[in-house]
Amino acid sequence: MNTSRPIRKAVLPAAGFGTRFLPITKAIPKEMLPVGDKPVIHYVVEEAVAAGCTDILLVVSRDKASIQDYFDRAPELEGRLRAAGKEAQADELVRIASQARFHYVRQPEMKGLGDAVWQARDHVGDEPFALLLADTLIVDRAHQPGRGDAVAALMAAYAQTGHSAVAVEPVAAERIHRYGVVGGREEAEGRFALNCMVEKPGPAEAPRILRLNGRPDPGGWAFAARYLFTPRIFAHLARTQPGKNGEIQLTDAMAALMAEEGFAGCRLPGRRLDIGDAAGLLEANHLLAGR
Ligand code: UTP
Q1: 59 lines ligand 1 (CB under 6 A)
Q2: Phi and psi angles of residue 71, each rounded to the nearest 5 degrees, phi first
Q3: pLDDT attached to residue 142
């Protein structure tokens, strides 16, 4: 595969039930909950676009029409705003809908993240693509969201190694059991060659990263919601059997892909804000207040 060709396609899974955020997610997708005056997914789309993705596939479900409405044009409303002299507001609505080509696919049953990515196979075809979890923001050191640095780092790792890549961040030992955790070796500052991936490991099975200084870290390194895959991921997803919780685990297919092709890890530039529950949403609103 020609690794110098720019990666233009991004997939954003947004079909999950959001059970950690019930009861509001019974009627409102968690990806549409507000951080400031914009929904969470607005920032994730801007991040993909900032990294150079021009083709965005949103994986949705039957109750998520509001996501499609948000990224669609609204000519009547735009006309009303322009008639009232509110040109800037109208221009912003046009910009949101025109910043990329938006496509949608429905996940028929919520069978897990691996199954959500599997729904993208026809649209993606035989190309590498970025995957951004639509319920997670990445902010830089100044707490600015929507920058493409994490995905850009994955693209650079792919261009250099030809391997799929995942953003990883350090987690304390006592929190490792909550995440997908990786093991491997640091090859250059913040760049890892991975050799192990385990979803929500117990303390005994948690893999380790060997750092450049020759020592393992006391804690672990966990997936940080941003990925870049070669299209071979679909061959492995096709064979992945339901794992923990009866869901198709993306981590299982990633581990098989790693064994076949190799896999890079990139230290997440910035910080991850998981909006999967009320505490995460409150923290994001607190950090981004006033933007
Ligand atoms: P999560 O596991 O955080 O979402 O998946 P969830 O399943 O909706 O949340 P809980 O655990 O029930 O509270 C991360 C992203 O993957 C999507 C979600 O919408 C979220 O953006 N996802 C998850 C799917 O698209 N399909 C699925 O079957 C599961």
Answers
A1: yes
A2: -95, 10
A3: 87
